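Give me the fold.
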Amino acid sequence: MKKTKFEFIIDSEFQSQIPALTDEEFQQLEENILSEGEVLSPLIVWGNILVDGHNRYKILQQHPEIPYTTRSISCTCETREDVLAWICKHQLGRRNLTPEQKKFLIGKQYHSEKSTRGGNHGNQYTQVANCQIDNLPSVENTTERIAKENNVSPSFVIRAEQFMKTVELMEKYCPGIQEEILSGKLKLSQREATIIRGTPTEALPTVVSTWREEKLNSKPDDSADTYENLELLSKVTENNFSTAATSKIQTADPLSENRPFISSGKRSTELQTIRELGEKMATVDHVADAEGMFSEINSASDSFIFRLEQCFALYPDFLTNVEIEAKVIAALQKAESYIVHLKEQHRQHLLETINSQ
C-alpha cells in the first residue's frame, strides 16, 4: 500500500550498520526516485522503527508527494539482535562494499547471531561468562555458516567480530572515526586494535584521537599492519595511562611473574610489547584504601580479559578447533574455581559474623 506519512523512528545503532552513500551516490539515488515518481523498493521496518532505506527516507522527507511502500520484518525478527543480524546479512549482499565495511558487517552479524542463540543479552564479557557448554556447538555452527556465506574462513569471522568491537569502541570516544575506518580512509591493523581494546578507559579518548591524528598525517602506506604502527600506539598508550589514572593508583615497574617469553621472530616481539603494556596497566605502587584496592582488582580483571582476547585474536583455532576446546575450557576453569572459592570465603565470613553477634 502506498503511503505518504513519515512516522518512522530512526535507530542510531541500526543506521550505523548501513554504509553511507557518497554525495554523488545520494544525488544519483534522488534523481532516480524523482524520475520514477515513486520509491520502487519498499522501506523495511521493524514495528515503527526504520531498518533499511534511510537514504530513501531522507529523500522522501524532502519530497513528501512521492509515494512509497513498506515491508515489515517483525514476524521474523523478535529481538534487536535479530534485526542487527538481518541488516548485516542483507548489507553484505551489496557489491560496492570496502573490505573494512565487509569485515565490520561480518563481525556484527556473527556477534548478533551468537548473542541471540545464547539467549544472553548482556555485554560482551557476560555473554562469554554465562555461556553454557551445551550452547557451544550452535556458536560454532554459526561461525561456519557465516564463513561459508561470505566465502571466508571461520577464523576470519572471529577476527571480524574483534575488529567490529574495536571500531565501535573507538567511535564512542571519537565520533566519526567509524566512517573514516570503514571507508578505508584510516587503516586499523589487528595489532593496533588489540592494544586499543586493552587501553584503560580513562586513556581511550586521548589514545584514539592521537591514533587518528597520526594516521591522517602519515604518508600513504599499502602495508598498514606494521610494527612501527604498533610501537607508536604502545608509546601513546603508556604515556597517557599515567596521566589518566587516579591519584590512588600509581604506575611502577612491572610485577615479577614467570610468564613464558615466546621467541618466534617479529611476531613474538610484537606480542611481548603488548604483554609488557598489559603488565604496566595492571601494576600499582601503593593502594591507599578500599576504593584503590577495588580499582586494582578491576584493572586486573581488564588485564585478564585483554590477554585472553589477544590469544584468541592471534590463534583463532582456540575458539573453533574441537580438540583444543577442552584444553582452553580446562584452563579457564581455574579462574572460575577461584571465583567460587572467593564466594565460599565470603559466605563463611558472613556466617562467622552472624555467630559472633
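The chain has a mean pLDDT of 75.
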